[in-house]
Design brief:
With 266 residues, the chain is an alpha/beta fold. The chain contains 8 helices and 13 strands. The chain starts with 10 loop residues before the first helix and ends with a strand.
């Protein structure tokens, strides 16, 4: 049975489990995760189907009633709200950024959501449908990298959202699958005609492979970039300095992310 056709718990049961989960210690939470119920969570006029059993982001939305990176999300929302926006969501997961940004953006906007995990592609598509965003969001079921090809997407136990093209330790790796890989430069021409362009990237340490060619080419750059910099110490290139050298200012550092806004652009 498809996970999204699995019956969800009644609200009273879900709320009781949520309260127990919120107050449990780490060990207790780990034992509870397999029985947490999938549910449609509503916030700010948005509906998100989440499955807290297999995805950390979904689990936090289920627990808190909103996405975990709320400061980062609000900063991007303010940039695109009511404007004809072009958004690249690289590592879209179940849509925690894709859906709110697509809802906030103005007429004519396009959101391209990149997500290579087969499980999360399905969940993302379901959330696009729940919010009637089929004419705004396009899902690209591929990973992004330095060049066209294919690579192994490694899965992490109980967290499809942390699937990665980077190696995962054997103790927490839960298999993998071959996925297609395309360069980001294949898509940037679609920004033409939009009022503002925004890029968000969270690819579990593979940011250099994705952004490197774009920054090197510098023929097109977005007006703003939200980059997960949690893995910066492991990068073989100082992306932060390179981005700043191209005329971007840091306007937010929160939730393991850094928001770069091009001077005078947004």
């Amino acid at each position: 049975m498809n996970a999204m056709s699995t019956p969800t718990a009644d609200p009273k049961t879900a709320n009781a489990l949520r309260e127990v989960f919120r107050t449990a210690d780490k060990g207790q939470r780990q034992k509870l995760v397999p029985i947490l119920p999938p549910e449609v969570i509503e916030f700010a006029g948005i509906k998100m189907y989440v499955d807290p059993r297999d995805n950390y982001t979904d689990r936090m939305i289920w627990r808190d009633g909103q996405p975990p990176e709320i400061q980062s999300l609000m900063a991007l929302t303010e940039l695109v709200e009511g404007r004809n926006a072009f958004v690249l969501d690289i590592g879209a997961n179940s849509g925690a950024f894709t859906i709110p940004l697509a809802v906030a953006a103005g007429a004519g906007s396009r959101v391209i959501a990149f997500e290579p995990s087969p499980t999360m592609i399905g969940r993302l598509g379901h959330n696009v449908r729940l919010n009637d965003l089929g004419d705004v969001v396009r899902i690209e079921g591929c990973a992004l990298g330095a060049e066209t090809g294919e690579a192994t997407l490694n899965f992490r136990s109980r967290n499809f959202g942390q699937a990665s093209l980077m190696p995962i330790k054997s103790g927490v790796r839960d298999g993998g699958t071959l996925v297609s890989v395309r360069p980001l430069l294949d898509f940037v021409h679609e920004a033409e005609g939009h009022e503002i362009s925004v890029l968000k990237i969270d690819v579990e340490g593979a940011e250099v492979a994705v952004l490197g060619p774009l920054l090197e080419d510098a023929g097109w750059l977005p007006d703003a970039m939200l980059v997960e910099t949690d893995h910066a110490d492991a990068w073989n290139v100082d992306l932060v300095s390179r981005i700043r050298d191209l005329g971007f200012e840091i306007t937010l550092e929160a939730e393991q992310n850094t928001l770069f806004v091009r001077k005078g652009a947004a």
